Amino acid sequence: QLQRFFEIFFKNSSPQQALNNMKEAISKLLLITEVFSESSASGPNSFNQCSQCFQMLTFDIGFGTSIHPVVLEVHENFDFQDEDESNIQDQTLKEFLFEDTFKFLLSNESSTSSFIEAFQKIYGSTVSKDGTYHREDEQCLSLEEINSMITFMKELKSLGQFELLVPSAAPKIQTLLHDLYHMVDPMRRLGSVLTMHWLLSSLLEQFQSMTKEAHTSLSEWRSKKNSKNSSQTIMKWLHPRNSSQESVSPKQNVPSDFKKNYEVLHYSSKAKDRQCSYDKDTLSHIRQIFTSPQLDLNPQFNPKIREYYAEVPFDMVTVKIGAEPSNCQCQVHLDEKKGPSIANYPLGLGLNKVIILITDDSQPSPQVVSSYKITIYREDRPSLPLFDEYMMCGFVQDCGSRIRPEESCGLQPLSHEYLSAISQTVFKTCEGGDTKGQWIVPCLSCSDNRTCDWREITWQPHGCQYSVLAKPEVQRCVEGRRILFIGDSTNRGMMYYLIERVNKTLQEWQKTHGVKCYHNINEGKTFISYSYYPQFWMNTNQRPTFEKALEQLLQRSRPLENTDQTVLIVGGVQWLNSNHLQIIQKVLNRENLSNILVIIKSIGMGFHLPVDGIHSLSQAEVQNLWNENLLILDTAKNFGYEVVDTFVITMGRYKEFLQGKCGCHFHEVVKSNPSEESPHITMTLSRHYTLGKYFGNQSKLSQLQDYVTNSQSPYHVRGPINQVYSEILLSRLCASKRELVST
């Protein structure tokens, strides 16, 4: 499999040469290390060597712009990089590696007769009467040298899946060996070491000739059928017993003091078999696209067609997509150059785009050679237009994800008393942003959500109303104020909604992941700044802390008054907890800003889908969000902060998320040019029917949406759920200026 690995990744050059180069690089490093080790051992600062010692080591090999490798690091132990400890194949492989190693080291197979036969062929020697062997120069081999050679012959018979690299009879290695020793040992003190090298390499040649079991070419090794699966390439060195070495320090990347005569062993790496072609005309093509559930692609798949379209129903919230390249030297990656070849995707309402990239991996630096695009349109909730006969239904949670198992889920009929209470003309203004409520919608039947007019859904707090402010009221409310946002993209969506409400237009927009300041709000009368937190893409130990991020935002937003003219809005999906609120309190006290207005956006639904590349919550973890949310709200109010409860608003409509892996975005910023928008998307709230007595504020929201959509604003913040809790944010921002509002 290691051979197969080289065939795939070096198919445009020379796989066998690349493999041989790797073996040669390892051998050279061992020999160079040995030269200095033996030189030190024979010098004045010689060290005590260990007899009968061995050590397992692991090589990291890198290939750059050619087929010539570099030894990046040598680990002083058996370093098997197993990312998934529960992987049965990897665990089996580890056991197999150790099993072969012990067989290699502790073989009981006799090798004396093989050694005598091979040695006689080398020297034509005979055994003297005193039991010693005589070389041509009449110098006798020591018992230690003889034992070393006998042990070497025994190991050759027990290699298993290992391959011997050193000693080597290759002329290039032999020449290097002599040059090295003559360079560092001009006095020829290490002549016996060179002789032992020659003896062992000669024994190897004779042994291979005798057994015909040399497996060094690709064609021969391919025929072996007992190779084991492996996801690693592992190099192991074992030192012979006739001389020894100083133990290797764990702190060293490349051990420096090794014994002579290394036996280098390696296992193979796993290569994925697949149907493919080496024809250059197929370099930019994919062979097939996999989807689960199966998508009805339009047009039907053809490798030469680059763009596809599919529609899926509202209840289909995820799809698994994968692809396979046509060419053997290419790989497929989803969305980015180093992305996976298959992944589970969330499907937000409206348009979703999946990009399939094909990279040519035959180059040292893989290059993108082509791309395919799949556009998937996910439909809105099935909805019927409102008829004369209808009933009002309400819900807090969806039966597909019951956050509160002890409470009812799905549509429930609303009583006449409740309807009468919410239809009064003068309504009390809600005193906080966490007033419990429910979604209400007109339906033909509360037992079938397909009979509802979902365009007329509205959020109804219990016993009060959040009033929708007209544009002049909003502008007066924020005039002279400095409004600071800190949080993730959901907080950023609320900020852009606020800017659009105040300015009537949204002139600029970007997915800011740093600090951004806006001086052109409300004709320059309002300042808004934003800081993205947390910076999840950074390593944990390198991320700025919340305290540091907050301090930086305050510094960038100065001058700040210690009054409610300064507003700090904090929140996100699920990173916020009560500890962050204590940090806010500490920082504001330290900066002499304890009297500013602080508004906490609580957590929201998200991360509830099994999506690749992010942490997904289990149902139990999703249910626990309820208690976490309550703790945040209670802590915030104890500090005297205003709150906006986004969790209770999003949990019942968790399927209505828009684009994004987290499934937590209930807003999107789009270009306002109608010609650039999909005709399928109808997220704007529809005209007001005959529901005035129940949906007074809904009518105002519809008018706001229609006004903004019809304006000449370059961008527009879209999403009715984001609109609801952003209007609640505005109500808390301007709460001190109103008491009763007539609908």
Automatic annotation (TrEMBL):
InterPro entries membership: Cadherin-like_domain, NXPE4_C
Q: NXPE C-terminal domain spans which residues? A: 459-583
User: Per its UniProt record, what PANTHER family does this chain match?
Assistant: CADHERIN-LIKE AND PC-ESTERASE DOMAIN-CONTAINING PROTEIN 1 (PTHR14776)
Protein name per UniProt: CPED1 protein
Report the domain of life of the source organism: Eukaryota
Q: Which organism is it from?
A: Nyctibius grandis (Great potoo)
Q: Which gene encodes it?
A: Cped1
Q: The Cadherin-like beta-sandwich-like domain covers which part of the protein?
A: 295-379
